[in-house]
Amino acid sequence: MVTQPDIEDKERIDMRVQVMAELDRPSKKMAQRFEVVDTAGNKFPLTIWKNNALSDFDWELEQWYKLENAGGNVFQGEKSLNGSSRLRATPIDPPKEIAQNKQLFEAVEDGLPYLSLYPIDSDFAELSVYEYQIQAEGTFDDSPMDATYDLAAYLRKCTDSLVTHAGALNIVSTGRMSVELPDPFVLAEEQQTALRAAERRENNQIERLLKHALKRAVDEDTYEAQKINRILERDPVIVGSDSLFEACLAYEARIELFPSGDAFVGVEVRYHTRSQITVNEYVDQVDADIEDFVDTPVEHDPDTYDTPGSGTLKGFADAHFTDPLPELGNQSLADWYEQKGRISENLADELRDVDPQLVEINYDPDDDETDVHVPHLLRVAPRKEVVKAVAPKFHREWDQSAKMLPNERFQKTTAFVQELGELPKVDAQVDPSPAGPSLSFMSAEVSRSNNLQFGDGRTAGVPRRGLQRHGVYEPPSNFHIHYLVPECVADEFETLRGRLERKLRDIKCPPDKKTYSEYELGKAIEYNEASAAIDDVDVALVVVPSPDADSITEGTIDDPYPEFKKAFGKQRIPTQMVRMTNLDNKWVTDNTALGLVAGAGGVPWRVGEMPGDVDCFVGLDATRDPASGQFLGASANVVLADGTVFVSKTQSLQSGETFDEDAIVDVLKDIHREFVRAEGRSPESIVIHRDGRLFEDVGKILEPFAETEIDIDILDIRKSGAPRAAVREDGDFKIDNKGRLFVAKHGDYGFLTTTGRPEFDESDGLGTPRALRVVRRSGDTPMATLLKQVYWLSESHIGSAQRSTRLPVTTYYADRCADHARRGFLLNGELIRGVPYV
């Protein structure tokens, strides 16, 4: 369906629109001007000029028209329609999809907030299943758990029941199993039982069964559903004019199952790009040397090559398609393909005639080994930088379409849910009405009025206004700034320095002392000498080149950024780093100034009244190696009840240490001790924010504090996979105010928006705000109070005076602290005062 994103400047287009309202005519050459809406809900102007056809046409408000030969207009990125000498307008009935949308949203009320969550119309407090033990009548190679995964998948293919694992060599199924398993396994000890959503382990099993049911409910003719978080429409919606790339709609679905038994399907929609360009075509079209293509992501072309695979391009090989290769026993790749039947005979003959030069491909990023391949059989993976270079027109349309506003986003997700079939074996259907305030969810909005404190205790609603009017809440007790600048940009730096010092004066926090030195871009050892000469300062501002500067990438100089970060970290001097490319960028001034204030120990602003009775918050980030899954350590960031950072620590595990909980408890004990030393008393209430999902044993974390009177709440703060939020106004979904919260009726689950109005709305083109998912793992504080605390901690970011940051300062700073420690910028295992990682 043709909609606003399809408009191209000065190109004729046919489109169906509804005339909504008459607009002002800023030019005397305009005959008529209207606000129109397309079938996707996009609103934009239609301008009829006096020299156009239909300049005196009698347009009717609320009427739908089929426009033919309208003129496309794109100005400052905004797309609209003009008339033309051949414009035609035919009144039509409301399009079918509009009638469907009205029917879809009959249960949606104006003035209420909604989430892109869709309720399942059955109660899953208990689910009747059959449980089986798997016995082995012989040896097997896989681990017991891997064997269980494989056997559960095998049973799902062989039966129409829903099957999932329930531990090593145990499965549960919605139906009785009578299928024989592959040798050496047999099903034994059948037992009919009920899974309970209130039990965490059983809740996970019900959730997995519902995922399999949801996948079966997807129409295979319309969608390709590999997993429920990767559901692709088969037909493209954006096709590049050069046919190098195409984009289809992709849906990510997830199951939200509450302990109460209420279940929802969360749906996210995006544009998925598919490549149609092979490596040889890419090399021909991009004017560059082969070295410029190194590390370009590539994938086997599914239309010409039977075996799937992906890797990175490493350059041309010395051999061609028909040349003998030692690694293939001195036969050619052409002969090898013929024996293996990897490509068709006709394609093999064509490639023999062309005899292309082969390319080197690396399939394993952890290994330097490469394999040869034919560039004609490889597609360039559609990474954004590749698409932008090869197909800029397609990239612009793709990029603009990706930032979907609430009305379009909710229409697409709701239409997707409406097309789902019944969830098999659980007698359930997904309701195509998004979740709003209901018996399942209580909704409220955080009162944001003047709860941030600045100089002299004065208050304001947003940081920027408070800093302008009242200055910082608490200047550093000593504020000696040292500037360290490359010799080659000394003159350019003076502009930034002038702006910076004016800003510090404006926020009533001028430095006590300023010193300056220069260094020469060169080798790491020279950077060490430059940093060693600096002592007895409170904070350093260091100017460095961008990491992708030619002098760094070509190896002419060492990158000074990590060297200075490590050196000053060991000297316990906080730093603010400024890229040379940003010296004339006035927008970096505010954040840099606030970073210097905080680095020297000042407090730019604080939260006036924090909801609930809490002494401090602990942001916890337990890190793992993504390749091995091995636990590496824990970092914690302690924030006082007013939102100010108290102390941080990172604890890395040494060889042989394996217990996550021990490292976390060690960090918490240190924090407790420091709080007692600073405040003269033990904290009575601590709220722990875990970055992401808490996999650690909650009981073991709480055990050392069991005999104390400290109340501890533990929350998961999950930023990925959370639903979108919007408010329904005048029949459309629109960007809601930030600070919107939803609390599930059972009280241990909620969602919160920390971005949105008044900071941005539909006119900013930033898309639809995504909520945070907050799950309480222990504690008794009301969930609404905990969500409000998370909101105010998201308003406490040092250096974010212009716009709210999505994450609370607790988990965001814990992650930053951990990252700096991993890179050697902080002293591991020691308590860290201030915020040198910001």
UniProtKB/TrEMBL annotation:
An MF annotation (GO) of this entry: nucleic acid binding
Keyword Coiled coil: yes
Domain Piwi: 539-826
Coiled-coil stretches noted in the UniProt entry, renumbered to this chain: 188-216
Keywords annotated in UniProt: Coiled coil
SMART domains, per database record: Piwi
Protein name: Piwi domain-containing protein
